[in-house]
Fold this protein.
Amino acid sequence: MSEKKQPNRRELLKTVGIGTGLVALGAQGGAALRSLVPNVSYDAPTTVKLGLPSEYPEGLKYLPDERLFVFREGRIFHAISAVCTHLGCTVRAEALSNPETKEVGGKTTRLTHRFLCPCHGSRYSGDGTNVAGPAPRPLSWYELSIAPDDGQLVVDLARPVERDFRLTVA
Amino acid sequence: MTKPLETAPGVRPRRLWSIRPRSDRESGDAVASNFALHWFPARSYRRSLDWSYSFWLGTVSAALFLLLILSGLPLMFLHIPSVERAYLSVKDIEYVVTFGSWIRAVHRLSAHLMVAVVFLHLVRVFLTGAYKNAHGRAQRREWNWVIGVAMLVITLFLSFTGYLLPWDQLAFWAVTVGTNIAASIPAIGPAVRELLIGGRNIDQPTLLRFYVLHIVFLPGLLGVLFAYHMWRVRKDGGLARADRLALAATKVEQPPSPTKTYSLLGIARGTGPTVRATTLVAPDELVNSVPDLVRRIAIVVLGTIASLSVLAVFVRSPLEEPANPLVTPNPAKAPWYFLWLQEIVTDTTFHIGSLTVNGAFLGGVLLPGALLVLLTLWPWLDRSPGGAAGRWFPRDRRFQNAVFLLFVLAVLLLTLIGTFCRGPYWHFYWPWESWPQVPSRI
């Protein structure tokens, strides 16, 4: 009776054999998939030098390589992303006929433009707030700083900041 | 003079295949001994072959797939999947290579048409309830429907991956939008996108991935599913229309006939064991597959290839500016078969208090996903009687056919709006309205 319940040698070998084959097959599939997940990013660095602050005009300058709008009001700088928060198209800036002055992040800011997305028609006001269309969030603001070595403006595209962020250049 | 060959027992007729068989036996042999035809039945139900029942849409799809492989092979020798050279190689195909623009036009038009025809095939199968098992004897038609839905999705992915290969503006931004839809899935989205495009930005790894998917993985998968699809049709007893024959038939004892033998399909030789047959059908409902079925298939396949060959002479394939990650075209439109989705992702972002649901996830993933699941499971949800299978607009399925057609119309309407009524910044314009001038660059 007890002999019947114990798996005999053939059954054990069969189970082990089939199991080994299936595990090997799974490992092949898993390895193939995993090999496609990149371990190294060759993307452009996220911290980029943007030139000397003195080269920036009053108002808005668009930097296509970084997909970034840099705003200057005298000695005060801030930067807003041009990447639409809906599906990642590049929004376009449109100059307002009547620029307005508003409190943004507790600081008085002159808004000269609004932003429109060509892909699905999202609209953003001059401070990046989504006002119409499918965009779910405002445009990101990014941290600006001054490079200690040559005094160039530096943006960190991996570090979004709050809207009260301003860089004041001495 | 060839007569003696057939009469000698154990001797096969010399003639392997003929479009004009002289006997039922020769007709049966023409199927059984021919590799290209061995997957067809020796005899076919006459009314299954009607042009007006199936419109032969499945055969047209298969013919287009064949044409895509034929036109894709020379393109593979000419296209270079590198971000520096892909655009220039496609430009060469279009303007330098002899017959290049024609081959590219054939490939592009076949791809567009295949999306449309495969979709129409699905509509036909739904409306005629052809996924239903009318008599249920060894039938698994619902699984063939599932295979068919999978093949539609693969056809769409094939078109989408092929879209990127020219590496022009259209390609680049269509793929930007498409992969960002995948990224909008909560939690796993960004990882899915990274796996799809091989990094965080659309670049060389993306082109190579889409290239390999387009030329090997997806066509191979489609080929395997196609073979299974056809095998399943055979196992399920032909088209759903043939089921009505089996349902209506009464068994009739046939008198033993000296000409009706098992040798018909080469099972036995000579006139020895006669078939004691109870036939289910009136003999005049069945026709020999050679020539009746084969002739129609030849007309459809060769006709499709001929029509496209002519059409491709007159329709040029567009090639926009080289891909420029810095400038989004205005408006940036997806390929036409995805425009209904682009319409939906535009309209489905909503806010409840502080909670925001991104239209990309709701309209780009959840809604089409739910539609796809519903479509796949429909054979199990359809409770209409088996007798409703294999006919157009049966009374029992009137309601579900109407609802289905409403969905089809909605998709068509959204596609038309996206194609003809969307201008710069995705604003609505009637087709006869002119678009305002917007600067192409900022």
Observations:
- The mean pLDDT of chain A is 87.
- The longest helix of chain A spans residues 9-35.
- DSSP finds two helices and eleven strands in chain A.
- Chain A has two domains: 2-35, 47-168.
